[in-house]
Specification:
Blueprint (H helix, E strand, L loop, with lengths): L2 H4 L7 E2 L12 E2 L9 E4 L4 E3 L3 H17 L3 E3 L18 H6 L4 E9 L5 E9 L4 E3 L7 E5 L4 H17 L8 E8 L6 E8 L6 E2 L7 E6 L5 E6 L6 E6 L5 E3 L6 E7 L5 E8 L2 E8 L5 E3 L7 E6 L5 E6 L6 E6 L5 E2 L5 E2 L1 E3 L6 E7 L5 E8 L2 E8 L6 E2 L5 E7 L5 E7 L7 E6 L6 E3 L4 E7 L5
Parallel strand pairs: 3-5, 3-6, 4-6
Antiparallel strand pairs: 1-2, 6-7, 7-8, 7-9, 10-11, 10-35, 11-12, 13-14, 14-15, 15-16, 17-18, 18-19, 19-20, 21-22, 22-23, 23-26, 24-25, 27-28, 28-29, 29-30, 31-32, 32-33, 33-34
Helix pairs in contact: 2-4
Amino acid sequence: MTRLLMTLVMTLFVTLGFASPAQAELKVLVEGGGNFKPTPLAIPDFQVRGTNTDLARQIADVVRSDLESTGLFEMQNPASFIQKDLSIDVQPRFADWKIIKTDGLVVGSFEELADGKIAVSFRLWDVYAGEVMRINGQPGRRLTTTPDNWRRIAHKIADSIYTRLTGEDPYFDSRLVYIAETGPKLNRVKRLAIMDSDGANQQYLTPGRNTVLTPRFSPSAQEITYMSYEGGKPRVYLFNIETGRQELLGNFPGMTFAPRFSRDGESVLLTQAENGNSDLYIMNLQTRQSKRLTEHPAIDTSPSMSPDGRSIVFTSDRGGSPQLYIMNADKSPRTCPSGGRDVACRITFNKGQYSTPVWSPRGDLVAFTKQLGGKFYIGVIGIDGQGERLLTEAYLDEGPDWSPNGRVIVFFRESRPGAGPQLWSIDLSGRNERRLQTQTEASDPAWSPVLE
């Protein structure tokens, strides 16, 4: 293990740090004000073997932007670079990079192939150890694709670097689906829209003739389930991204809403409301058979399944106000954090109203929306009901969803009365709050798995 990797510290409350020659280990701890020092990386423009220098530069730009967007890395100013004659095949002059206090160096090359495709190769260097950092056991990585797919190459390079330096799973090569909102408040047009994780390649999936809400990706990232008012009544639909085919899910009496795929993608969890009461159901997508999960006179809604598929978190007002509950997917009794056994165990007991729970891909936390004292918050809590932390506060923050690696939460915000909704993200530690750029006002975001 290289010296660089050994000095990385990455927890909820500790950010990245690289060893310096004078220190055995450099740790950057979060202090009172949340101060920390991002790790300095240098990513010069890639070597070009061919004529398309613009495309090569764009790929490097996306890699830099991806890594910098985490708040964990600081990109060195190209004007400070001393060594200009970099080659992926030659060891860099480490002294030149130490002078400008660079800890990690990425050297890449761009090549136009005879079959019309492009190939991008890169190596990640530990400047102070004077060694190449191996990725998947190799001293570098080479990726090949068609020119129109260049952004995915860039995201995969950034993912490789991020994973190698942090030890965490990747998330840049993924997409977001959301509700694009236009028009006046009383005549709002809401369409399904999709974009890359960095906001590129935005496109509409539905024409906007009917209001749509709460889109959610399947584990394959090729299907979306959502609620639509087509026909004048809220009902759950499926949308195939590749074919554009829209399909009504089931023939439930009453309204259906708040859908979310099961972890294996074979079923959809949803809420059915009838005669003033709402309960949770799960429908198998192959057999189209549905099973009722809750039978309670209270309002049960917004189910989300655990990564292992064994448990479901949901919102219910059965205790007098909207709170979070966890139940076993097979409806068997479970041991509750508050003691005793029950089919559904309450996990939130602090002041406020809780809604829109989403189970983390890591399995240890649930993200939620909380309303308290006239404000809204995005927070997380352990599945045992311990360790509640509020990450954001605003006039209206709502609708959290997790990045594929469980490190970042995306949500939507209205900053003041009358302001339109916008997409935002926040790191799990509560740092690096960022607005995500969309072509319109936007709400109800959901994050796809990493693309294949």
